[in-house]
Design brief:
Elements lengths: L22 E2 L3 E2 L7 E9 L3 E10 L4 E11 L6 E7 L1 E4 L5 E9 L8 E13 L14 E6 L3 E3 L5 E3 L5 H8 L5 E7 L4 H12 L2 E2 L18 E11 L3 E11 L6 E8 L3 H9 L4
Antiparallel strand pairs: 1-3, 2-3, 3-4, 4-8, 5-7, 5-9, 6-8, 9-10, 9-11, 12-15, 13-17, 14-15, 15-16, 16-17
């Protein structure tokens, strides 16, 4: 048994050495809370791998689940390759247990978002609800339970980091690997536009730029403007800085969004900028 490297994370027997975990995402629900089997997933991000930690809760007192795992089916098996499943040997009534899937990330492929169809696979063993003792065939019967799709996003590979002086760090990265793109956003207010980009990129707002000035006066052309500055570290400890400019037309009919991304690599800057249209 070995810890995969995150405080408070359940331990599991990993068949390969994955190195140090980069970050762990908040758990996402793959079922409703009122279903027979309640499942959520935490994504642990490593340099070359993702460990998916599934917490499974059995809410049926007459059942015990055996050899529990989650089967994944994605569309891009060249980028994300499920390489190993670690089953939960048993899941008793209201006693959550964990199973794991290890996904290998092909570093030769351009990183992109991916969705996986998920099915919970297990055997059901009937038990006496008053004692928990096996009641009937101890081998049980095979069962399958469909879960919600699991999404892996580019932002999962980004960690927030605060900066003391954004401008100094921005100038320090220089223009060599800068990428600049321009988009039209669907949001109708600056608050909505700022919130959407922060959530999409998974980065840390800097200099209080997540706040919109109240009672801001429009320019002579009737447009409202706002700057948003973000910082983060991409997996592999690569610094990423983003400088965004919003221009909202009078009446909120059109929001023009310009993003500039700086990082140590041109391809990484482009990857982050492409998240907006992805």
């Amino acid at each position: 048994i070995r810890d995969i490297g995150v405080t408070g994370v359940q331990t599991c027997a990993l068949p390969i050495s994955l190195g140090r975990v980069f970050r762990s995402t908040p758990a996402v629900a793959l079922t409703e809370n009122e279903t027979e089997y309640v499942v959520n997933c935490t994504k642990h991000i490593f340099l070359n791998h993702i460990v998916l930690q599934f917490q499974v809760n059995n809410t049926i007192p007459e059942q015990q689940l055996v050899d529990v795992k989650v089967d994944l089916e994605g569309s891009n098996d060249e980028l994300f390759i499920p390489s190993k499943s670690i089953e939960a040997s048993e899941v008793k009534y209201e006693d959550p247990a964990f199973c794991y899937t290890i996904i290998e990330r092909n570093l030769e492929e351009t990183l992109s978002s991916e969705s996986f169809r998920c099915n919970l696979l297990f055997r059901v063993v009937e038990v006496d609800p008053s004692t928990g003792e096996v009641d009937g065939d101890p081998t049980g019967f095979e069962e399958e339970y469909q879960l919600e799709d699991l999404h892996i996003e580019v932002s999962d590979f980004m960690s927030k980091i605060s900066l003391g002086n954004f401008r100094v760090s921005w100038d320090g990265l220089g223009e060599e690997n800068e990428v600049k793109e321009r988009f039209q956003l669907p949001q109708k207010t600056l608050e909505e536009g700022v919130s959407a980009i922060i959530k999409l990129l998974g980065m840390q707002p800097c200099d209080g730029t997540q706040q919109i000035k109240q009672n801001q006066s429009a320019g002579k052309d009737g447009k409202l403007t706002h700057d948003l500055r973000l910082s983060g570290v991409f997996v592999g400890n690569k610094q990423v800085l983003v400088w965004c400019k919003y221009v909202l037309s009078e009446g909120g009919n059109q929001m023009i969004f310009t993003i500039k991304v700086r990082s140590p690599e041109q391809a990484l800057s482009q990857l982050v900028a492409d998240c907006i249209q992805g």
